[in-house]
Design a protein that fits this description.
Helix 2 packs across helix 3. It contains 6 helices and 5 strands; from the N terminus they run E-E-H-H-H-H-E-E-E-H-H. It has a 3-stranded antiparallel β-sheet. A two-stranded antiparallel ribbon has the order 1-2. It is rod-shaped. Helices cover 53% and strands 11% of the residues. By secondary structure, it is mainly alpha-helical. The protein starts with 12 loop residues before the first strand and ends with a helix.
């Protein structure tokens, strides 16, 4: 099979093979004029719907596809935006937390100072001790109730037995 004619390899290619015309699909090859991993860039660009992400970035779908197929270089700001969006998605439950000076603020409005962060192991230990103490008190109350009932029962039956044997 001989290739008589081939157009640019990044775009739609028309190939003549043995007299018949065949079309080759566009090759997806996003690239930028800055230092970046092209595989990482491609993964970021394929992470969501092309129409939605083009609207989010503020460009037309045809411009997005031009970046996607390597016809035009992807601007660095778009690459950095896609990286930031991925990093925020990976934060999980920490997504809505923010830092204000020395405080870590939760979405519920509560905050924690940086020095309190180092005291967390002590707080956990105190919580565990309080739970153990509550369990011990509950167990002692059950034992007290058991022995009180048992003592009253023995006292009643003991009086009956004393009356019988007198």
């Amino acid at each position: 099979m001989t290739y008589a004619e081939t157009e640019r390899r990044d775009t739609l290619a028309v190939v003549v093979c043995n007299g018949s015309v065949m079309e080759r699909k566009k090759r997806i090859n996003p690239q930028g004029h800055y230092k970046c991993n092209t595989l990482d860039l491609a993964n970021l660009m394929f992470s969501s719907d092309h129409n939605a992400i083009a609207e989010e970035v503020g460009v037309s779908v045809s411009q997005w596809r031009a970046w996607l197929y390597g016809d035009e270089p992807v601007p660095k700001v778009v690459y950095l935006y896609l990286q930031q969006k991925k990093a925020l998605a990976e934060l999980g439950p920490w997504r809505n937390y923010r830092v204000d000076g020395e405080r870590l603020l939760s979405p519920m409005g509560t905050g924690m100072l940086e020095r309190e962060f180092h005291e967390l192991p002590e707080y956990r230990r105190c919580k565990r001790l309080a739970e153990q103490q509550a369990e011990l008190i509950e167990r002692l109350m059950r034992e007290r109730d058991f022995y009180r009932d048992n003592c009253h029962r023995q006292a009643r039956f003991g009086l009956m037995l004393n009356k019988l044997f007198r």
